Amino acid sequence: MHNRSDQFAKSLLRDGLSLVSATETEVEVLAATQKIDVYSVPDPAREAERAGMGLLGELSREPSLFEPFRGTPSLRLVRRCLRKQLTWHHELERRARAAAGSAAPAPDTDAPPQPPVDFPALVVISPGRPETVLDAYRCEPVQAGVYHAVPGLVMRVVVLAELPRTRATLLLRLLGSGRLLREALADLAALPDDAWEKSIAKPLLVHFRLGIQEPIDEKEDEVSAEIRAWFEDYERKLRAEERKEGRNEGRAEEAARAVLTALRVRGITVPDAARERILAEKDPETLERWHERAIVAASLAEVLDTLS
């Protein structure tokens, strides 16, 4: 996954799942030069939060490999994901044995590690319906847009185009493109400002500039214009905040150097530790107070005597 949309998908899944799981991205699979896009292990202490995450929370109830696709995957691509799943389980068993101080089992035995290691689920996220995959693995629908393969595979297939347009599916629908993405962006914009989905998705959407460069057709002009305006407003606020922080930091540095200059003019030696503390201070009132003292001080203690 190297292009902008793929990196966004991986980042969105990772950051969303990090609310309720221990997550990793690009987990190396030892038997081949393959990487798992996102690997999630549920945190039992955050079960209540996971229950409020809708479909993504349901899909992360067990240790899972998440593999989002930009285009509808072929059978060959899904087989590659299944190889990752099997190899990763083998690696987890190896780690469990190593942690327990157990030797590797003989090749002709089937001794599981102690404690046993859960077989991780594979979650394939597809924009369209992958007919060959669903047929090959006899996937059955369990809810709109979600299919389970035969039990032994522990594979779930999520078809973004078939998901209902609800808040429960929103974070996953943001992984789509075209009209699906624009609808998801409109739904995201309509949420309250403190919605958890916004805290996860908005910084990533702006960073990867997704949605504002999507092609549109005449029927979608109004929706797309609304989304573009939302993006531009968010970017303006973000840039203004960054500029404000930059100006504040610049003023604080200037004020700190004024304190040091006043001390130097007074012939007061400033040890390195005190210099670092003055330069690290960001509160303008404190720096102004120190500067006023430094102009008339006879010692460093008279300037910094209130510094804890």
Description of the molecule:
The chain has 308 residues and is an alpha/beta fold. Helices cover 51% and strands 13% of the residues. The protein contains twelve helices and seven strands. The protein has a seven-stranded mixed beta sheet with strand order 1-2-3-4-7-6-5. A hairpin with a 2-residue loop joins strand 5 and strand 6. Helix 9 packs antiparallel against helix 10 and helix 9 packs parallel to helix 11. The longest helix has 45 residues. About 3% of the residues have low confidence.
Beta-strand content bin: 5-15%
Q: How much helix is in the residues?
A: 40-55%
**Termini gap:** 50 Å
Described by the principal axes of the CA atoms, the overall outline is elongated
Pick out the low-confidence regions.
Answer: 212-221
The rounded Rg comes to 27 Å
| SSE topology string | HEEHHEHEHEEEHHHHHHH
Question: How many helix segments?
Answer: 12
Q: How many distinct beta strands?
A: 7
Strand order, biggest sheet? 1-2-3-4-7-6-5
- The structure class reads alpha/beta
> What profile does the largest beta sheet have?
7 strands, mixed
Average pLDDT across residues? 81
